[in-house]
Design a protein that fits this description.
Helix content is 23%, strand content 22%. With 116 residues, the protein is of the alpha+beta class. Strands 1-2-3-5-4 form a five-stranded antiparallel β-sheet, with helices on one face. The chain is globular and about 35 Å long. The structure holds guanosine-5'-monophosphate.
């Protein structure tokens, strides 16, 4: 996972790469994943560049809370009242491929445990 300053998701935030954006506010955007793993697969990403989950600091607490509340609203809008899964992959062993913190909102099918 290369730590690129101008990473892929930053380019989406800056409008340099197109994406199917379904939410945009001062703190974050959300858009459909290009390779959906479920009928609903949305990525919620902070506009602040934070490379990985373990780079979060106490000052990011409200931002993380905001991402969760956006997920709640999007889940309602996207018809996921029966349930959904939120995933944050962290670094290589966590399966992270894009070095910009992001939350996956997955829904529209059953999910199982343990995850792969
Ligand atoms: P990660 O593996 O880092 O947790 O998740 C990265 C996600 O970004 C993957 O699910 C992948 O399909 C998605 N992705 C990668 N490139 C693009 C892109 O250019 N556009 C969109 N919309 N999603 C992307």
């Amino acid at each position: 996972m290369a730590m690129l300053a101008d990473n892929l998701f930053k380019r989406i935030i800056d409008g340099k790469i197109s994406a199917k954006i379904i939410h945009d506010d001062d703190l974050c955007i959300a858009f459909h994943d290009i390779g959906p793993q479920a009928p609903v697969h949305v990525l919620i990403i902070p506009k602040k560049v934070i490379p990985t989950h373990d780079a979060l600091t106490p000052e990011d607490g409200p931002l993380i809370g905001h991402l969760h509340l956006v997920a709640v609203n999007l889940a309602q809008e996207l018809g996921l009242a029966e349930g959904y899964r939120l995933v944050i992959n962290c670094k290589d062993r966590g399966g992270q491929t894009v070095p910009h913190l992001h939350m996956h909102l997955l829904g529209g099918r059953d999910f199982h445990w343990p995850p792969g």
